Amino acid sequence: MGSPTTSREAVLEAAKKMLADGLVEGTAGNISGRLDDGNVCLTPSSVAYETMTLDDLVVVDLEGAVVDGHRSPTTEKDLHLSVLRRYSEIGAVIHCHAVHATMFALAHEPIPAVIEEVVVYLGGEVPCCAYRGTGTRDLGEEVAAALADRGAALLANHGLVTCASNPEKALHNAALAERTAQIVWGTRAMGAPIVPLPEKVNTDMAGVYRFIRDNP
Predict the structure, then answer these.
(1) Do residues 167 and 87 make contact, with C-beta atoms less than 8 angstroms apart?
(2) What is the pLDDT of residues 48-105, one digit of tens each?
(3) What is the per-residue pLDDT across 150-203, written as a single tens digit (0 to 9) for each?
(4) pLDDT-derived band of residue 1, with 50, 70 and 90 as boundaries?
(5) Please, which residues bridge with residue 33 across strands?
(6) Which of 13, 33, 154, 216 could disulfide-link 4, Cβ–Cβ 3.0 to 4.6 Å?
């Protein structure tokens, strides 16, 4: 089975929806999608999502060399390419600055998997990566390692990254991680203890995540 692929149109649509859903502000965040020819479509650096068009998107090979486009690719291209090189079953990566998820990233604390759908779609708790400099290969390798069995990870002191077979599903994962972070934050604000899911539920549903990921 080949790697899942997507289109430039899907990358652009997800980028605009990421802004509309409040997962980023301004020109922050970035999205990638694996194309049919094996190259990767990336959002450009410092271009507003409201006015972004297909012509603004940049296509690079898996080593990061630009093969199509007149703009510079996102400065976080190594983050995206490290994941796509390592996992053939992944077709898209999203990095955003969702508010509640970023609160957990600032605390270097994972978002716990206390809701069943988090285990099904994200594979379990959302781990926090060790801090690495923005835009570096070290950050890319750190994130790729964290996403071995997860659909989302936190970037310490920075934000959230998610992956899936296509941009739409990666965006769903980002929204789910953010919603869960908000729910956990709110429960803690209530002063109530958070009761974990039974371990058997975690184990069984993590198997569902693995199946979905391996059979996009």
Answers:
(1) no
(2) 999 999 999 999 999 999 999 999 999 999 999 999 999 999 999 999 999 999 999 9
(3) 999 999 999 999 999 999 999 999 999 999 999 999 999 999 889 999 999 888
(4) low
(5) 41, 92
(6) 216
Contact indicator for 157, 147 with CB cutoff of 8 Å:
no
Q: What is the CATH number of the domain that holds 26?
A: 3.40.225.10
**Residue 76: active-site member:** yes
208's tokens: 């569902």
Question: Taking the model in full, what pTM does it have?
Answer: 0.96
* List of residues 6+ apart from 70 with CB closer than 8 A: 55
Dist. CA 118–CA 75, nearest whole Å: 29
CA dihedral angle for residue 198, residue 201, residue 204, residue 209, rounded to 10 degrees: -120
Domain span at residue 54 reads 8-214
Domain count, the chain: 1
Catalytic residue among 13, 25, 50, 76: 76
